[in-house]
Amino acid sequence: xxxxxxxxxxxxxxxxxxxxxxxxxxxxxxxxxxxxxxxxxxxxxxxxxxxxxxxxxxxxxxxxxxxxxxxxxxxxxxxxxxxxxxxxxxxxxxxxxxxxxxxxxxxxxxxxxxxxxxxxxxxxxxxxxxxxxxxxxxxxxxxxxxxxxxxxxxxxxxxxxxxxxxxxxxxxxxxxxxxxxxxxxxxxxxxxxxxxxxxxxxxxxxxxxxxxxxxxxxxxxxxxxxxxxxxxxxxxxxxxxxxxxxxxxxxxxxxxxxxxxxxxxxxxxxxxxxxxxxxxxxxxxxxxxxxxxxxxxxxxxxxxxxxxxxxxxxxxxxxxxxxxxxxxxxxxxxxxxxxxxxxxxxxxxxxxxxxxxxx
Length: 359
Known about the structure:
Order of helices and strands: HHEHEHEHEEEHEHEHHEHHHHEEH
Number of strands: 11
Helix content: 40-55%
Region (Small ATPAse domain (RuvB-S)): 179-249
Subcellular location: Cytoplasm
Oligomer: single chain
Strand content: 5-15%
Binding site for ATP: 17-18, 59, 62-64, 125-127, 168, 178, 215
EC number: 3.6.4.-
């Protein structure tokens, strides 16, 4: 009963921080320039804009851009998601209720079911859907004409989209991670909207721990604001930001508790690897998918972890980040594989060498 209002407050805050037009959208300069041309040309023709596909990691602004597209086209916005559409009838109901020029935002479009996806092909291309009414011998196929609309699809895994669907989008854009300077602009803008007094050094400290993602920047800013309000005079300085983020277990490179748990297990329990993903997940007490989809992408991008055919391996940067010394290179080299009779090739080892690595 206490968590619901807090969740609603956070969502209201996030909505207030979203820019309302392309001029207020920070970062993604190339995407903004291309999208601005698409929307301006459509307005000059008094036509609906082409279908738009936005791909990229979570928190980079895909939903915000969908809202901006609807605002720039002065059209209503309908929001749904791929997991919510698992049957063609559900998609047909959504499409049939659209008005002319409306923008349909389909988040996580790669998770839509294949039958619904095939229905979407015809709707995107010909603004028409074919539905079957009745069953058995009494079944009748009907064609439902749709008003022109703009589909904005968002996905975090563009590789899972089948080519027929991807090719039907008139404009595709990939959202890149933000540079620290861009995140500082995001933080200063959000601080103004939240009424938070922040020094440039404080914004720099938060930006450096935001993992290149504006959503994380805004979340950390709110937590730093709380810390500054309770323990200081409300002004966010570098020292206050560093102390606040230390309380919330976000280190100087943006690693959180799960990231450090993965690195600690990899380095201290398995000597830096290689180790399998399932074994690593058990060691940190998390699900395999959580480690693979939440922690690993950032660790790989930061150069702290590498994926190899033999398993996960820590890089020298990981040892340095945790202040540990990497183990020396083993002097023993694994012998060649066994002969057909099952015995190892003893000729590959000097006389007197044991049949395994030294203790």
